[in-house]
Amino acid sequence: MVTAIVLLSTERDATNRVAEALAGTPGISEVYSVAGRYDLAAIVRVPTNEALAEVVTERIRAVAGITASETLISFRVFSKHDLDSMFSIGAE
Length: 92
Prior knowledge:
Blueprint: E1 2-10, H1 15-23, E2 28-33, E3 40-46, H2 49-60, E4 66-73, H3 83-87
Antiparallel strand pairs: 1-3, 1-4, 2-3
């Protein structure tokens, strides 16, 4: 499982619309509205790096209202939850 956090800045009145569009996008498991330098944080969980590239460069970039993004690719997860099994249901 490849996980990335995509930090997004949006046009002033587009944050909710962008969040809703991203939340319905295959490969994006969660979208958070956040305070600070960015407006949204999208959590991408996909099986391969190629799938990650598709989500970030094709699906996210296709959403109107995004003005800037920064993608953080995870190397390792530190969690008390078994995230792989939680997100692998139906992934085959």
